[in-house]
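Customer ticket, subject: "Can you confirm the structure for NADH-FMN oxidoreductase RutF, flavin reductase (DIM6/NTAB) family?"

Message body: Hello, I'm evaluating your service for our small team and ran a test protein. I'd like someone to confirm that this is what the system normally returns, since I don't have a reference to compare against.
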Amino acid sequence: MDPREFRNAMGRFVTGVTIITAEDDAGTHGMTANAFMSVSLDPKLITVSIDNKANMLGRVRNAGKFAVNILCNHQQDVSMHFAKQLLKEEPIEFGELSGVPIINNALTNVVCDVEREIELGDHTLFVGAVKDIVMNEGRPLTFYSGQYGQYEVPND
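Agent reply: Thanks for trying us out. I re-ran your input and got the following:
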């Protein structure tokens, strides 16, 4: 099977858009990601998937903690900034939650300690033990078939 065909097929699953943030000795870093999921309610665990070639892999590993920032529909520019899709990048001002950098005004910020990492294929899964959460009002930014979109609440 052609890798592009597989990627295109996986792109047909509509997802939210997140920024993974972490801080190490080199500073605060972020990465756009849609490979995120809840794993367990008891204990509270989530997982993110990071390409083994991504700079963020070593940063999360070194930090031992990270945040998943679920973006609001008005934060497409933030996603594009961390995906390096903007022609002119503006600096991002980070907030902080439980000692971890977060994206301000995100729909949800989830702070985790790295519980476990599992290398599978060309990615590493980081299982995070959830330590803190902040939720804000708004609607999620979505991603489908290579395009950003917005979720519309039925009968709203």
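A couple of notes from the result: The longest strand covers residues 108-120. The chain has three helices and twelve strands. Feel free to reply with more questions.
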